[in-house]
Specification:
Layout lengths: L1 H8 L3 H10 L6 E4 L7 E2 L3 E6 L10 E4 L2 E2 L4 E4 L4 E6 L5 E8 L9 E9 L50 E7 L24 E3 L11 E3 L5 E3 L1 E9 L2 E8 L20 E5 L20 H4 L4 E5 L10 H19 L4 E7 L1 H12 L6 E5 L5 H18 L2 H4 L7 H12 L5 H10 L11 E3 L7 E3 L33 H4 L25 H5 L5 H10 L2 E2 L5 E2 L7 H9 L6 H4 L4 E5 L10 H13 L7 E6 L8 H25 L11 H6 L8 E3 L13 H6 L9 H4 L13 E2 L13 H10 L4 E2 L15 E2 L7 E2 L7 E2 L14
Parallel strand pairs: 2-9, 16-17, 16-18, 18-19, 19-24, 24-25, 25-26
Antiparallel strand pairs: 1-3, 3-7, 4-5, 4-8, 6-7, 8-9, 9-31, 10-11, 10-14, 12-13, 14-15, 15-17, 20-21, 22-23, 27-28, 29-30
C-alpha cells in the first residue's frame, strides 16, 4: 500500500487539482495514462478512473467489453481515483465502462473507447516496409537468394511475420573492481565479453564479494543489481535496464514499482543512417552507469538507431510505443530525456519535431537538425567531388598548384578544407541508391581523384537478385532512403509504368554553386559558369545526370507539414543541451548547431533560450575521463535538474503534453548556459562563457555549406528554392562576357534561387500527423475522452478489427 501511495504522490499538484475537482464531478472520468486511447498497443493499458463523490466506491463496476475487470484496479479513497492495467485488449476498438451499479438512466456511468494496435505495429503509419527479415538466436549468413539474419540476443525464434520474439530478462551486477571495462556486457553480435567488465552476470540469491552499492536520486540505497528486459516491439529489438531487487516479494507492476526506480527514463538513440530490411539488435550500450546508478531506466530500440532505420516517422512511432510499454509495465514516468550523437541527434530532433511531447528534453551531440536537410549537403558534395574530378574542372586548373586548387574547392564547398565533401561522398553519398552499386569514392584526399572501391552492395542488405534493377528486376525491392518510408511519402506509381519509387525531396534547380566564392574573388567567372553548367543532378534512380535534380512537389509538402524538416517552433518547446566536439574535416560541422538555433530563433521571435550549446575543440566524442565529466556527465545532470524544475513549475497534463518555450526557459537552471572549452584547455578545467573567445578559436568557429556559399540561409531548411530571373547586375562589379552570360541563361532557363522567399511548399509544421489512412498524413484529431452513458457488452457482442 505504501508503494501505491508513493506512486500517487508523484503526481504532485496535478493529482491535488484532480482530487479537488472530484468534489464536483457528477460523472465518471476515464483516461489512459500510457498513451492516447486511440494509440494503445500491445493489448494492455494503464487506465485511471475518477469517481464522482456521489458514488460509493464499493458500488463502482468496471467493465472491459462487458467483462468485469475491477480486480485489476487499486483505489485511492482520498482522491476518489482508481487505477489499473487493463490486459487482454482486443485488436481494434474496445469499450471500457465505469458504472455506478445503480438503476435508472440518470445514474453516473461513462465509457471510453480504447483502440488497440499490435505490439509489432504500426500505429502512426498505415503500413510497414517489406520484406523484413527477422533476427534469429544466432546469425545466419545469406545463402543464394535467401537473405541473411542477424543475431537477436534472444534464445528463441520469431513467432510471426512481425518478428515478435518472446521477451527475456537477465540480471547483472556492478563490480567494485577499479578500471573495469565499460563495454556492453552482452555484446551484439554475441561475442565473449571482456573478463573485467563493469557489469557481471548475477545469480539470484548470491552476494558477490565485489557487489557495488549505489544510492539513487531519491535517496534509496540498494545493491547495484540491474535487470535487463530484452524483447521486440514494432519489429525492433529493445533493451530496458533498471536497478532491480530480485528478492522483492511483490512483483514489479505499473501499480507497484520498486522504489529504487526514480521514475525517470534515459533513451539512447543510435548514430549513422541506413535502410536495411533486417531486424537488428540495438547497437546502443544499456550499461550507462551514470544513469543506472542514480535510479534511471535506460532504454534503446534498434528502430530508434538511425543506422537501422532512417524513416523518421517510424522512429517517432517506436519511441511512442516504447514509452507506453514502460508505463504499462514499470509505472508512470516523471520524464524521459534523450541522448545520442550524429544520427542519434537526428532521431532526437525529428522525434521532437514530428511528435512534440514524446521527449521531455534532448541532448543532441554531433548535432544535425534533421536528415532531409543534411541530405542537401551530402548530395551537393557528391556532385561537387565528381565535378572536380572531371576534365571540365581539371582543364581550368592547368598551371595552378594543388594548394591553389584545393583553396578554390574549399571556397565553393564552404567547409574548412576540401576534405569535408570527400567524407560526405565516401560515407553517405550512396544513401539514395535504390539498387545494387559499387561505391565511387574519393581515393586521393589531396587531389580528389576518384575510383570504384569495394564489392557490389545495396542499402537493403538483401541478396542482389531481390533488389531493384531498372532492366533485369524493375519490380525488385527499392533500397533508397525515401523507399524505406513509402508509408510517409507515397510513391510515383505509374510514372514510369510499374514504378514503386518513393517520392523524394532532393532538388538543386536554380542553385548557383560557388556564388559567394565568385563575389569574394576566390574563383573566376569562367570557373563559376563552368561549375554551374556542368555540375548536373540526379535522376529517379539517383544516377548522376547532366540535368539538375527535381523534387516531387507532394514530398516537399509532406516534409514540412509532418515536421520531418525539423520545426524551430517544435524544437522551441523542450530543453536542449547541444554538445559538440571537433570534426570539421569529417562530416559533423559546427555550423549545424547554429542552424538549429537559427530555426528556433526564426520561429520564436529571436528567442532560443531553451537551447544551450557546449563546444570543445578536441575529438568528436568525449574520450577522456576529464572530458566525460566536463561534458557528458555535466549535460546529463544539468538536464535532470532542468526537467525536475520543469515538472514543478509546469507539470504536464498528460504523459505526452507539450510545454511552451516560456515555461521551458523559466525552469532553466543556472548551469544551463552556453560555454566552450578552448583548444588549449586539455583538462577541461575552464569553461568559457565569452562567446567571442569561443568563436575565435580555430577549432570552435563555424564554417558553411555549399548551399550557404550559393547564397542560402544558415537555417538551411529550404528544400527547393523559389526562382527569380537571372540578372547580370546581381554579380556587380564582376562582369561576364556575352558568351558566359548566355551560358548562364542556358543553365538557369527558369531563373536562379531567390533566397529571400520561402522554399517551394515550405510551411509551418502541422505535426503530429497520422499516416494510418495512407501517405501524406493527416493532423491528429483531439485525443479520445470518456463520454456519459455506454452500454454493457458481452465479449461476443464486441465488434473489433482484426
Amino acid at each position: 500500500m505504501n508503494c501505491m501511495k508513493s506512486s500517487f504522490l508523484a503526481f504532485g499538484a496535478v493529482l491535488l487539482a484532480t482530487a479537488q475537482a472530484g468534489e464536483n464531478r457528477t460523472n465518471f472520468e476515464i483516461s489512459t495514462l500510457s498513451n492516447r486511447a486511440d494509440f494503445i498497443s500491445g493489448g494492455d493499458a494503464l487506465v485511471e478512473v475518477r469517481v464522482p463523490k456521489t458514488v460509493p466506491l464499493h458500488q463502482v463496476r468496471l467493465l472491459l467489453n462487458g467483462r468485469d475487470v475491477a480486480a485489476a484496479f487499486r483505489t485511492d479513497t482520498a482522491a476518489l481515483i482508481m487505477r489499473g492495467v487493463l490486459t487482454g485488449l482486443l485488436p481494434g476498438q474496445n469499450e471500457f465502462l465505469a458504472d455506478s451499479n445503480g438503476h435508472g438512466d440518470g445514474r453516473p456511468r461513462a465509457s471510453l473507447t480504447i483502440t488497440n494496435h499490435a505490439i509489432g505495429g504500426p500505429v502512426l503509419l498505415g503500413s510497414q516496409t517489406t520484406p523484413w527479415i527477422c533476427a534469429t538466436p544466432t546469425a545466419v549468413p545469406a545463402s543464394g537468394n535467401t537473405p541473411a539474419s542477424n543475431a537477436s540476443g534472444l534464445t528463441t525464434f520469431a513467432i510471426d511475420a512481425q518478428c515478435n520474439i518472446a521477451t527475456e530478462y537477465k540480471l547483472f551486477y556492478r563490480t567494485t573492481t577499479a578500471g573495469c571495462s565499460t563495454a556492453l556486457p552482452d555484446p551484439s553480435p554475441p561475442a565473449p565479453a571482456p573478463t573485467n567488465n563493469c557489469f557481471k552476470p548475477y545469480a539470484p540469491g548470491t552476494t558477490p564479494a565485489d557487489l557495488a552499492i549505489t544510492t539513487t536520486t531519491a535517496g534509496v540505497t540498494v545493491p547495484y543489481i540491474v535487470r535487463v528486459e530484452r524483447g521486440t516491439l514494432n519489429r525492433g529489438i529493445y533493451d530496458i535496464a533498471v536497478l532491480f531487487d530480485p528478492t522483492g516479494a511483490t512483483p514489479w507492476t505499473a501499480l507497484t514499482p520498486q522504489p529504487q526506480w526514480n521514475g525517470k527514463v534515459v533513451y539512447t538513440f543510435g548514430a549513422s543512417t541506413g535502410q536495411p530490411r533486417l531486424q537488428f539488435r540495438s547497437e546502443q550500450n544499456w550499461a550507462d552507469d551514470a544513469a543506472l546508478s542514480r535510479g534511471f531506466i535506460v532504454v534503446d530500440n534498434s528502430l530508434t538507431d538511425s543506422l537501422f532505420n532512417s524513416n523518421r516517422v517510424l522512429n517517432a512511432e517506436t519511441l511512442m510505443m516504447m514509452k507506453e510499454h514502460i508505463v504499462d509495465t514499470y509505472g508512470e514516468i516523471k520524464y524521459l530525456l534523450g541522448n545520442g550523437c550524429s544520427g542519434g541527434s537526428i532521431q532526437q530532433n525529428t522525434a521532437a519535431s514530428i511528435f512534440p511531447g514524446l521527449l521531455d528534453g534532448i541532448q543532441p551531440s554531433c548535432d544535425y537538425p534533421d536528415s532531409i536537410t543534411t541530405g542537401l549537403e551530402v548530395t551537393d558534395c557528391v556532385l561537387l567531388v565528381n565535378f572536380y574530378a572531371s576534365t571540365n574542372w581539371t582543364s581550368l586548373m592547368t598551371g595552378l598548384t594543388q594548394a591553389q586548387i584545393n583553396a578554390k574547392k574549399t571556397a565553393i564547398n564552404g567547409h574548412l578544407d576540401q576534405l569535408g565533401c570527400h567524407s560526405w561522398n565516401n560515407l553517405f553519398g550512396f544513401n539514395n541508391k535504390p539498387g545494387n552499386y559499387v561505391p565511387f569514392v574519393v581515393t586521393n584526399q589531396v587531389t580528389g581523384a576518384m575510383g570504384f572501391a569495394g564489392a557490389p552492395r545495396n542499402n537493403c542488405r538483401l541478396p542482389a537478385a531481390l533488389v531493384y534493377d531498372p532492366v533485369s528486376n524493375p519490380n525488385g525491392t527499392r533500397c533508397g532512403d525515401p523507399d524505406l518510408a513509402t508509408a510517409v511519402w507515397g510513391t510515383t506509381a505509374g510514372i514510369p509504368p510499374n514504378s514503386t519509387r518513393a517520392r523524394q525531396t532532393g532538388d538543386n534547380v536554380g542553385i548557383q554553386y560557388g556564388l559567394n566564392a565568385l563575389l569574394a574573388g576566390a574563383i573566376t567567372p569562367e570557373e563559376f559558369v563552368t561549375l554551374n553548367e556542368k555540375i548536373g543532378g540526379f535522376d529517379a534512380d539517383w544516377n548522376r545526370r547532366a540535368a539538375r535534380t527535381t523534387a516531387d512537389h507532394a514530398a516537399l509538402d509532406i516534409a514540412y507539414r509532418a515536421g520531418i524538416v525539423s520545426s524551430g517552433r517544435n524544437l522551441g518547446k523542450l530543453p536542449i543541451i547541444d554538445s559538440r566536439g571537433y570534426d570539421e574535416q569529417g562530416i559533423h560541422y559546427i555550423w549545424r548547431s547554429f542552424a538549429e538555433r537559427a530555426r528556433i530563433d526564426a520561429a520564436n521571435d529571436g528567442n532560443h533560450g531553451n537551447q544551450v550549446m557546449w563546444r570543445y575543440g578536441t575529438g568528436l566524442l568525449p574520450g577522456t575521463a576529464a572530458q566525460v565529466a566536463a561534458v557528458t556527465l555535466r549535460s546529463f545532470l544539468t538536464m535532470d535538474t532542468w526537467l525536475s524544475n520543469l515538472n514543478v513549475s509546469a507539470p504536464k497534463e498528460t504523459l505526452n503534453s507539450v510545454r511552451t518555450q516560456a515555461e521551458v526557459i523559466q525552469a532553466k537552471p543556472a548551469a544551463a548556459v552556453d560555454f566552450c572549452f578552448l583548444t588549449g584547455d586539455p583538462t577541461f578545467s575552464n569553461p568559457v562563457t565569452n562567446m567571442a573567445l569561443c568563436d575565435a578559436d580555430p577549432r570552435l568557429m563555424k564554417h558553411a555549406s555549399p548551399r550557404q556559399v550559393a547564397g542560402g540561409p544558415l537555417v538551411e531548411n529550404i528544400l527547393k528554392c523559389e526562382l527569380k530571373p537571372l540578372n547580370s547586375a546581381d554579380y556587380a562589379p564582376l562582369v561576364f562576357s556575352s558568351s558566359q552570360l548566355a551560358r548562364l541563361h542556358a543553365t538557369f532557363p527558369d531563373g536562379v534561387c531567390d533566397w529571400s522567399e520561402k522554399g517551394v511548399g515550405q510551411q509551418r509544421a502541422a505535426s503530429p500527423l497520422t499516416f494510418a489512412d495512407g501517405p501524406g498524413g493527416k493532423r491528429l484529431p483531439r485525443p479520445p475522452v470518456s463520454h456519459p452513458g455506454g452500454r454493457e457488452r458481452d465479449d461476443d457482442d464486441h465488434d473489433h478489427d482484426d
